[in-house]
């Protein structure tokens, strides 16, 4: 095999091997564990960078491994997978850094970091999956590797959340499995690189195609937290902050959204999806999710729960972009995969800092936090304003392209949805910012782990949100440069989906 | 007339980038403990690059930064130059004033942080030569001004801030939608392209209302009289002098002025709305006691006149440039005069307290009466260019406006007389102004008196505006207004017969704060805090949905919807398979 083929395997192994070794390490072996984690994350970053440069120069990366007789595990890197891989590996690096400091004195760290690495491996697997069976394989693995992370704290609440999580995701997995098998029976292996594979079935197998689509979408829709399949997400926020950060920004929810992209754009293809009349229902589901998630977020007083509902709402921007279905809107949706990830991970990092340093979980107790944690709240403010979609932050870029796409497609009413969503986001994020900066502290904090040297708390808790907040500013501010996610998404859309 | 010295090229580009750049740098210096004092000392000078750019740079200079945001273009054009001059003078003088005004305030660095970033964004929006750049800086400026309004953290300030922020967000989404609709029809987003294209319908309406919120368009003006009295004096000066003009500039940049294709109905509606605001602002303003509130209502009234001008631009095809120019002259005149009046409210003018104070009171007559268009003041030029535009209008409007315009001048006289009387009655709790405050105020006063005479690019207007026939036209409304006020003070004081809380129409839609409007402070404070505790009024309005939503959420969980959805899908399958 040429080096191009090894590269994809190496990318997977760069987090899997450290993960497996960490399981065997003793709990007290902090140095080795951290070193392995960070080495893995950095090596993966470098490999991913090599892959992205390769793809932009037209190189092809693919590898097939025999899984079952007649069934191959196919890994292939197209520009869309590169987008997701880049997001996962970058944010994994930051989250690892954050998690090391966050879990400093808590029990079961080897266990935690082991599953943490596996979770990222599997997410990368989902991104690189070259056909539907491989996708299914990794998608199911994701449920199994994230479950231990969700219940990591072991409290009754965590266990209950874990049960709900399993119930939802396994049922979703079952639906997805049924859909994949049915499709396999109809056409055999579904390779993502062959577009229009299902087109000939349009005449004879219309009901079957619709049924399969419903199965597939409701299968991945559970992880993408489409209303009404979102119930697990707000509960899963009992997990430790780094897990929530990863769950919301990269791993589970994004895997679902990525799955919807794959199914609509690559398995069915936009012409077939719209020919079957399935784009409109999915668009309606997405708009309902956007508004419903935000309306529920309004009422939350627990910061992490509010962020969870905000994720429900924001991830559906991605689905909305895909279902509008013209290049501009697809760009807006796809780039939101990156933008929402960066902004949301910042928000969860900050929520974790506030909880960890001051013991504050409720928004109503956040008065004056800005004075005590200015850097954290600065990052939070940037990310929250990005979520609202204020220029020049990341969220605005997505919103702008979604809006343009909607108008060009003649769906002006979607502009109303975007506007309402913006106002709702403002209505639940601005009060938090207001409390933190413009109100005085009331009474002592529940606890205060104190400043550390130059930093307001442990530096490894402050640096990751600062970096991700800076990135969420830069990807918006420099959206037009050739290195921005927007430029890459434009590359994807012009090379693959423009002709339609 | 000032001649441009710098041509396109390196020094010009450097100067251009320093216009928003320097204030931002100084603002961030204020955040670090070590650089804070230096930052505070630099704050008054941060507007100098803008002043230099306005005076020295040639219109037409621009700078394209392809990687910035979504392809940015910054530059100076004719309109921008005039607005930049106004902004630089007012922001600079008010910053200088503010150093003295806030000298005893321990949180002065917080104020100047918000002041400087707001200033940088305000300069940025004037320089922006493309749609998204303008939108970017406009949004940033609006949001950062919140920090100026709530600076003193009183319940009134918080309430004004809340009203302001809600309206800013509504304006923001309206402008966003308007721009998306407009952008979908344009080949590129540069202002030159927009000026050449004709936009009507939806995007026109969205942008009109969106920018109208900032420009104090009645009935969206309610934030203005609330925000001005509570903000520190330098902040009110820039709010009224410059920032509300950003909405006006938005109209000039994005509305199809002087084009044939637009609906003349909109132009007429805008003219009427402007006239309504011109009189409405005066009537409500006369019922006010607080000097800064009176000035705020006068600003609403004056912005009404400028709204009327913009409406004229929509009614008179082919007169786009003339209207734009007239609006920028009017804005320059009003901004300088109003800012110097606002700064005066921060200097304490108790009658007879000192010769300097009473001298200053007499000096106030000039900017005050220039608002009413007194001959030989900057207002005379503004009213003259206004009349020039009106003469270009088609038949019914020409007659109506020729009749009504002198009445607006008369109304303005009434409100400025009311203001002067309140000033003469003295202001409570003011410490003596520092020399820097006096100097910066004098600077602004002088620019207000002189600048509009030397600035206009067509200096012929300055001499025409002083012709004998026009003198009488300018004089009689002022004389009549003054006499009416004297009569009214003697026999029928308006404010004793008419009490309207600041924020007027707001109380129709926001009744729970009537107590605060009636100055029943203890009651209102209790109410306000309980509301903020409950998550703010905006959230309460939406209470219904979340409470319903929570109920659904509970049902969904109990019922384990996934299982049900699964069963449903299986059924669907069976039906399809056996069909």
Structural class of chain B: mainly alpha
Count of alpha/pi helices of chain B: 27
The overall number of domains of chain B is 2
**Uncertain regions spanning at least 5 consecutive residues of chain A:** none
Low-confidence stretches of chain B: 1-8, 532-546
* Strand residue content of chain B: under 5%
Q: What oligomeric state is this?
A: heterodimer
Tell me how many strands of chain B there are: 2
The global form of chain B is globular
Q: Supply the helix-strand structural class of chain A.
A: mainly alpha
Taken in chain order, the helices and strands of chain A follow as: HHEEHHHHHHHHHHHHHHHHHH
- Tell how many strands the DSSP assignment of chain A holds: 2
Radius of gyration of chain B: 25 Å
- Cα-to-Cα separation, first versus last residue of chain B: 86 Å
Please state the average pLDDT score of chain A.
89
Biggest beta-sheet profile of chain A: 2 strands, antiparallel
Measure the end-to-end span of chain A: 35 Å
What are the SSEs and their pairings?
The complex is a heterodimer of chains A (500) and B (579).
Chain A: H1 3-24, H2 30-56, E1 61-68, E2 71-77, H3 79-102, H4 109-128, H5 132-150, H6 156-187, H7 206-223, H8 232-235, H9 241-249, H10 252-268, H11 270-275, H12 279-298, H13 303-324, H14 327-358, H15 369-372, H16 374-388, H17 394-408, H18 413-438, H19 459-477, H20 485-497
Chain B: H1 10-29, H2 36-42, H3 48-56, E1 62-65, E2 72-75, H4 78-101, H5 108-127, H6 131-149, H7 155-183, H8 191-196, H9 201-215, H10 223-230, H11 233-254, H12 264-286, H13 291-315, H14 320-345, H15 355-371, H16 378-391, H17 395-424, H18 435-454, H19 460-464, H20 468-491, H21 494-497, H22 506-509, H23 514-517, H24 521-533, H25 536-541, H26 544-559, H27 561-577
């Amino acid at each position: 095999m040429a080096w191009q083929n090894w590269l994809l395997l190496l990318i997977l192994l760069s987090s899997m091997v450290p993960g497996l070794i960490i399981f065997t390490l003793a709990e007290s072996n902090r140095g080795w564990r951290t070193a392995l984690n960070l080495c893995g994350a950095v090596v993966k970053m470098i490999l991913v960078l090599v892959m992205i440069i390769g793809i932009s120069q037209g190189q092809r990366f693919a590898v097939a491994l025999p899984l079952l007789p007649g069934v191959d595990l196919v890994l292939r890197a197209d520009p869309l997978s590169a987008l997701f891989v880049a997001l996962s590996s970058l944010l994994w690096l930051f989250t690892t850094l954050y998690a090391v400091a966050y879990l400093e004195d808590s029990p079961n760290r080897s266990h935690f970091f082991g599953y943490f690495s596996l979770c990222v491996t599997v997410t990368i697997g989902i991104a690189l999956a070259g056909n539907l069976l491989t996708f299914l394989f990794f998608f199911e693995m994701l449920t199994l590797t994230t479950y231990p992370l969700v219940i990591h704290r072991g409290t009754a609440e965590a266990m209950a959340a874990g049960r709900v999580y399993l119930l939802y995701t396994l049922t979703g997995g079952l639906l997805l499995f049924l859909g994949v098998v049915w499709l396999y029976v109809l056409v055999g292996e579904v390779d993502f690189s062959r577009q229009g594979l299902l087109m000939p079935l349009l005449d004879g197998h219309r009901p079957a195609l619709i049924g399969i689509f419903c199965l597939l979408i409701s299968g991945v829709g559970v992880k993408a937290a489409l209303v009404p399949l979102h119930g697990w997400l707000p509960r899963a926020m009992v997990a430790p902050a780094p897990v929530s950060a990863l769950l919301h920004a990269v791993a589970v929810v994004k895997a679902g959204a990525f799955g919807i992209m794959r199914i609509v754009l690559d398995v069915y293809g936009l012409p077939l999806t719209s020919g079957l009349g399935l784009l409109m229902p999915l668009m309606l589901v997405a708009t309902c999710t956007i508004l419903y998630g935000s309306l529920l977020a309004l009422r939350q007083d627990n910061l992490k729960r509010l962020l969870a509902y905000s994720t429900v709402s924001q991830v559906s921007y991605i689905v909305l972009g895909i279902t509008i279905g013209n290049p501009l809107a697809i760009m807006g949706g796809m780039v939101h995969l990156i933008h929402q990830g960066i902004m949301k991970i910042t928000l969860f990092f900050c929520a974790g800092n506030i909880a960890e340093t001051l013991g504050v979980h409720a928004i109503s107790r956040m008065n004056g936090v800005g004075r005590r944690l200015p850097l954290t709240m600065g990052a939070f403010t940037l990310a929250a304003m990005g979520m609202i979609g204020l220029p020049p932050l990341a969220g605005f870029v997505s919103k702008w392209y979604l809006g343009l796409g909607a108008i060009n497609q003649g769906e002006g009413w979607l502009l109303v949805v975007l506007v309402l969503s913006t106002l709702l986001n403002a209505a639940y994020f601005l009060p938090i910012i207001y409390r933190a900066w413009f109100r005085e502290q009331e009474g002592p904090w529940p606890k205060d782990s104190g400043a550390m040297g130059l930093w307001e708390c442990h530096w490894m808790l402050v640096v990751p949100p600062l970096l991700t907040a800076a990135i969420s500013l830069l990807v918006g501010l420099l959206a037009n440069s050739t290195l921005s996610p927007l430029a890459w998404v434009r590359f994807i859309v012009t090379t693959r989906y423009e002709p339609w | 007339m000032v001649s441009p010295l710098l041509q396109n090229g390196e020094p010009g580009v450097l100067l251009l980038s320093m216009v928003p750049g320097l204030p931002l740098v100084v603002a961030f210096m204020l955040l670090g403990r070590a650089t804070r004092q230096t930052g505070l000392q630099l704050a008054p000078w941060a507007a100098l690059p803008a002043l230099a750019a306005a005076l020295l740079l040639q219109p037409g200079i621009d700078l394209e930064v392809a990687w910035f945001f979504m392809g940015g273009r910054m530059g100076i054009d004719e309109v921008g130059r005039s607005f930049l001059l106004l902004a630089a003078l007012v922001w600079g003088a008010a910053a200088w004033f503010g150093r003295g005004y806030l000298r005893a305030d321990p949180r002065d660095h917080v104020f100047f942080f918000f002041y400087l970033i707001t200033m940088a964004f305000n300069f940025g929006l004037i320089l922006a030569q493309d749609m998204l750049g303008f939108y970017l800086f406009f949004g940033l400026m609006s949001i950062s001004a919140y920090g100026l309004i709530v600076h003193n953290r009183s319940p009134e300030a918080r309430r004004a801030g809340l009203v302001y922020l809600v309206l800013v967000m509504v304006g923001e989404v309206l402008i966003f939608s308007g721009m998306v609709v407009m952008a979908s029809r344009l080949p590129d987003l540069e202002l030159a392209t927009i000026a050449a294209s004709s936009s009507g319908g939806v995007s026109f309406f969205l942008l009109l209302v969106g920018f109208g919120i900032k420009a104090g368009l009645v009935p969206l003006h309610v934030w203005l009289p609330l925000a001005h009295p509570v903000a520190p004096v330098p902040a009110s000066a820039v709010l009224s002098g410059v920032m509300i003009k950003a909405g006006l500039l938005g109209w000039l940049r994005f509305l199809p002025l002087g084009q044939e294709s637009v609906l003349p109905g909109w132009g007429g509606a805008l003219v009427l709305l402007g006239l309504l605001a011109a009189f409405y602002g005066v009537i409500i303003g006369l019922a006010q006691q607080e000097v800064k509130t009176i000035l705020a209502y006068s600003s609403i009234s004056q912005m009404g006149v400028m709204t009327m001008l913009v409406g004229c631009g929509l009614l008179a095809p082919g007169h786009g440039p003339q209207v734009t120019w007239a609006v920028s002259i009017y804005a320059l005149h009003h901004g300088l005069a109003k800012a110097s009046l606002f700064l005066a409210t921060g200097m304490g003018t108790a009658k007879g307290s000192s010769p300097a104070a009473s001298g200053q009171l007499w000096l106030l007559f000039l900017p005050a009466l220039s608002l009413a268009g007194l001959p030989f003041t900057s207002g005379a030029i503004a009213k003259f260019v206004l009349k020039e535009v009106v003469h270009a209008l088609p038949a019914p409007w020409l007659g109506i406006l020729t009749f009504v315009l002198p009445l607006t001048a008369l109304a303005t006289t009434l409100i400025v007389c009311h203001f002067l009387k309140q000033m003469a009655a003295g202001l409570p709790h003011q410490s003596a102004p520092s020399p820097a405050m006096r100097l910066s105020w004098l600077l602004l006063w002088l620019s207000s008196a002189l600048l509009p005479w030397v600035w206009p690019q067509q200096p012929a207007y300055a001499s025409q505006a002083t012709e004998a026939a026009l003198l009488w036209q300018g004089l009689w409304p002022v004389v009549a207004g003054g006499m009416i006020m004297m009569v009214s003070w003697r026999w029928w004081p308006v404010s004793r017969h008419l009490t309207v809380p600041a924020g007027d129409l707001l109380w129709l839609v926001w009744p729970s704060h009537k107590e605060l409007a009636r100055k029943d402070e203890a009651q209102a404070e209790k109410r306000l805090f309980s509301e903020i505790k409950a998550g703010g009024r905006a959230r309460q309005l939406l209470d219904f949905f979340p409470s319903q939503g929570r109920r659904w959420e509970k049902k969904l969980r109990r019922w384990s919807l996934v299982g049900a959805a699964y069963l449903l899908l299986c059924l669907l399958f069976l039906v399809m398979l056996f069909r």
